[in-house]
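Lecture notes, unit on binding sites. The following record was shown on slide 14. It pairs a sequence with manganese (II) ion.
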Amino acid sequence: MIVPPISLSAHILLQPFSQSELAQDLAHCLNHIGLAGKLIAKELRTAGLGPWLGSTGTTNIQGEEVQQLDQQANNIFLQVFQGQRLVSVVVSEEMEKPRFIKGAEGTGRYAVFIDPLDGSSNVDVNGPLGSVFSIHRLAQPGYPQAEEDLRKKGHDQVAAGYLLFGPSVNLVYSAGKGVFQFTLDQELGEFYLTMAQMTIPARGRIYSANEGNSRKWAQGAQDVLRYLQEPDTQTGRPYSGRYSGCLVADVHRILLKGGLYFYPADVKNSNGKLRLMYEAAPLSFVVEQAGGMGSTGLQRINDLVPQALHDRVPLWIGSRDDVILAESYLRPKSQT
Ligand code: AHG
Ligand code: MN
Ligand code: MN
């Protein structure tokens, strides 16, 4: 394939809105996130050779085991935001409290939310990994006075996206004007535009879920799974099952091919597993921009007002018709 010669920085300058202050700010943020992506990719390429596989022996705020690479990816994001003055706070899956960025106390107009390394269970087995980011504009420049200032709806994101570390590295983002995919040329160290104005098929033939949990799901979620697996030539069923254990990789497949990703609530976890502010909301922002939907099963993800920075939510995301169909099974019977 001939790589189109549009780098990430050039692409941002070419956008019709590129002269606005917001676009220049976004260019700044995306370039820093791109840099973090290159640094993480470099670590991952040699992770199997070095001492970086395995656990740190500690658990994070989520009560989950922290892998050494989770910690390292988190440090890389913090390092790239040190020394700049536009992002004043970083909220991460790996840190209980927001981290204020020194030097941006009077000037930083943005908060960046990150899942620094997504799909940690793939670390030791050389499976796909990702990073997710969400960018919010602060009401006032500087450090937010209260945590509440950071608890914003997904609709308020000014940009969101993810990095996917697979056989190649992708950066996918939306700033509310379509979805763009870039691919890293590892030799040149530059992201190049490989897909513009991405759209998700209105309906797909793939589902992605951890079926090992299905007996713990509510009846509605089990019914959706049964429907997707039922043979029916007219509606193109059964759907194919594809699950990597890395949300970013699984949602990326659904974005490109269409279909449904779901991580429902279960008997033990009434809000499911995935985190609202740095997993569900940014991915829903991207998928909605591509013409799809992101739902809790009952409500649009990006309408939710977070109660806490590390809130969890059930997630049903993907092709519009597939999400609508799932919602019809999940709605309480009295509302159907
Ligand atoms: P993280 O590695 O950031 O903690 O996220 C893990 C998430 C997500 O990547 C994935 O879709 C899901 O957890 C996998 O969970 P199961 O192992 O329960 O399927
Ligand atoms: Mn994750
Ligand atoms: Mn993570």
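Take-home: The mean pLDDT is 94.
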